[in-house]
Amino acid sequence: MNIHLSFGIDQLIQHSNPAQYGRIGLVTNDAAYTAMGQQSRLALLEADFSIQKLFSPEHGLSAKGPDGAFIPNGVDSLTALPIVSLYGEKLAPNSTDLTNIDTVFFDIPDIGLRYYTYLWTLTHVLESCAAHQKKLVILDRPNPLSGSIEGPMLEENNCSSFIGRWNIPVRHGCTLGELAMFFNADKNLQVDLQVVSCKGWNRNLILRDYGMPFQPTSPAIVSWECMLAYPITAYLEATNLSDGRGTNAPFAQIGAPWLQGFDLSKLQGLTEDVVFENCQFVPSEGKFMNEVCYGLKIRVKKAQHYPSTLLGLCLIKLIKAQYSAYFSWKPYPTRANPTGLRHLDLLTGIYQSERLLELTWVDFLSQIKDFTQITEWQRKVSPYLLY
């Protein structure tokens, strides 16, 4: 598509006076680039913004740290700035971190899903800026999965975690700037908040439609294909199946040594927007490392409105039914959930979600469709939409 798209950082550099922000702490990682392909922190420094230190989310400043792994503090080899990890000893900047900081900038590409942790790092930064009376500037970026919305909503009382703290849908349809404004109001945080908007983004389009090169946002999200398949296959983290980590298509292919001859017909009959094919692969890490796995390759043809939650949970139910002697639930320990227990609950936001998989097929489909109603979310968030 021949549409010019610029990010919040591009708009900030073009239209703002760096002196007005004083001393800056920048929350970022290596996935954050300008529209012209320069890393955000270098572009800001070259434009005379006074960055004093960097803060990094899960996967570290490199965006390559192992999933769920503890990330230590460090020093940035590009800028020689100190790096404070927000996925190590703490999840939020403390008073010491913010001493001699006037403004916090946040510039991290997200992928538009509730269980992707960069969003929740943002919420901790929001709370920290409120507590320590620091201005927060969100350098906004498009939601790469478009503005489409899909449930279920998250049950805060039973399912709140670092892969979903607050009551929003799995596919929330917002930019991080829009969510920051919503949370600031909804949680009455009273942060001095500025959102620097993108220019040229149409929320009916996915980011791939603009012909932009893909920048990996974390170790397993390495291509548009992986990003589009992830909302379907992320739920397999809670099972004993391989999610394709350690292959060239993590989340875009899933399997196990025992998943030979899987019957695709019922799954494929649910949608024409996604194609499922049998495949085999040998993962170099994770579950079934160095073993031949048989399974499915997933290709999303129409990305705006495909029913990812429905497909993901139906996929698990069908595998569980066809391979009951082999399938099992499995804990998924991370820095934010050390026991790894109830991982499916935390991903879906549904309390005791494993019970859904015991229902008859008809009742299961009915329940899932009920869970994915998002009219109330659309009403609540609409005053904060920028695009």
UniProtKB/TrEMBL annotation:
InterPro entries: NamZ (IPR008302), NamZ_C (IPR048503), NamZ_N (IPR048502). Gene3D superfamilies: 3.90.1150.140, Uncharacterised protein PF07075, DUF1343 (3.40.50.12170). It comes from the Bacteria. Pfam families: NamZ_C, NamZ_N. Residues 229-387 form the Peptidoglycan beta-N-acetylmuramidase NamZ C-terminal domain. Residues 24-223 form the Peptidoglycan beta-N-acetylmuramidase NamZ N-terminal domain. This is DUF1343 domain-containing protein. It comes from Flectobacillus rivi.
